[in-house]
Write a structure and sequence with these properties.
two-stranded parallel ribbon; 404 residues; two-stranded antiparallel sheet; little secondary structure; 8 strands; Pectate Lyase C-like
Length: 404
């Protein structure tokens, strides 16, 4: 039987915590009396730290179970071995944070920024006055994310080798370039997740749901995929896409000719399930009236493209650049636009005759984490659309149909 000591957590009264937080703000701004926040092994369970700037803070081994950290800035913070069980961490900034050995069982990290963070397993060395360093056995398995909610979170480039995330929700999360070697992801929900370039070597994905997940350039060697749902996963694009013996480039040129000649030359593209990715970019291309439902535009550069009146229902625009694009009157019903950059896009009604117009329709579309800042969307339809984490500051939504 182990005789190893347990670490005691230090309780803080409200006044002491307030003073420590004030000193940290002075430290961050370079003012006199500043002091970096050091709350190692502090008992902050159920504490409210919502929206507070905690950059570079040292919270090693802190007890933060049930705490409210929503929208807090913890970039580059040290949370090594911290207890974050069931904490409210929605939209928290944990960019490049040290989360090795942290326990986040049941935590809500929806829409969180975790790019480049370290979620690997870790053990904490404690110094004992008599016996020197000893290893603390964490009361829960290190690196635990079981039952955590990470829907829409940004985990690009995260170090998650050996992480335990059984039954966790990664719906529409960005896991591109993440290191997940040997991770335990049994029964995890990865629907719509971007795993581009991720390393899942030896990971256990038994029973995982990976519907519509992006699996381009993913290492799945020795990964367990028993009973995993891989319906409609997005793999690497074909080198060339042909339509009726014509290359996609030729067909697109004919469509633009149709647009430029007001229909006198060329012909409009009417085709379903076209993979446009081989073209890489459609920046500023003239594609008015395009009919390409259920097609793939994932991650493409579509800045300034003209899609007026286009039928783009059910299309995949995840992570695409649609800045300043003209989307007036286009149909995006059931489309996937998670993390799309739509800043400054035109999404108002399209005039089609005297007192007649067609509205831009995003009904049932997924716009989770999309950026619509400064976009123009008067009278657009967003019925049953998923808007979690979408940025809409400065977006003109006058008369838009949205569910409150």
């Amino acid at each position: 039987m182990s005789t190893q000591p347990q670490q005691h957590h230090t309780a803080l009264d409200a006044q002491a915590l307030r003073e420590a937080l004030d000193a940290h703000q002075r430290y961050l701004s370079g003012r006199a009396g500043g002091r970096r926040l050091n709350l190692t092994y502090a008992d902050l369970a159920n504490c409210s730290l919502e929206g507070i700037d905690l950059r570079d803070a040292d919270l090693t081994g802190a007890r933060l179970s049930g705490a409210t950290l929503a929208r807090a800035n913890l970039s580059r913070a040290i949370l090594f071995g911290a207890d974050l069980r069931e904490a409210d961490m929605r939209h928290v900034n944990l960019k490049r944070a040290d989360l090795r050995g942290a326990c986040m069982r049941g935590a809500n990290l929806a829409g969180a920024e975790l790019a480049g963070c370290d979620l690997r397993e870790g053990r904490i060395a404690l110094q004992d006055k008599l016996d020197g360093f000893r290893i603390l056995r964490h009361e829960h398995r290190p690196g635990e994310l079981n039952y955590a909610v990470l829907a829409g979170a940004n985990l690009a480039g995260a170090q998650m080798s050996g992480a335990v995330a059984m039954s966790s929700d990664f719906t529409d999360a960005n896991l591109s370039g993440a290191i997940l070697t040997g991770a335990k992801l049994m029964r995890a929900v990865l629907d719509g997740a971007d795993l581009s370039g991720a390393d899942l070597g030896g990971a256990d994905l038994t029973g995982a749901s990976m519907r519509r997940a992006v699996l381009t350039n993913v290492n799945l060697s020795q990964a367990r995929l028993d009973d995993a749902d891989l319906t409609d996963v997005l793999r690497a694009p074909p080198p060339i896409f042909y339509i009726d013996d014509k290359s996609l480039s030729e067909v697109m040129a004919e469509h633009e000719q149709f647009c430029d000649s007001a229909g006198r030359q060329g012909q409009v593209l009417k085709m379903t399930e076209v993979d446009f990715r081989p073209l890489k970019s459609l920046k500023k291309r003239r594609l008015s009236g395009l009919s390409a439902p259920k097609s793939i535009f994932f991650g493409m550069d579509l800045e300034g493209a003209q899609f007026q009146g286009a039928d783009l229902s059910g299309c995949d625009f995840r992570g695409a650049n649609l800045r300043e694009a003209d989307l007036r009157g286009a149909r995006f019903t059931d489309a996937q636009l998670a993390r799309a950059d739509m800043r400054g896009a035109k999404m108002g009604p399209l005039a089609i005759g005297d007192a007649r117009f067609v509205r831009t329709d995003f009904s049932r579309a997924s716009l989770r984490g999309a950026d619509l800042r400064g976009a123009h969307a008067p009278r657009a339809r967003f019925l049953e659309a998923q808007m979690d984490g979408a940025r809409i500051a400065g977006c003109d939504l006058t008369g838009a149909e949205m569910e409150i």
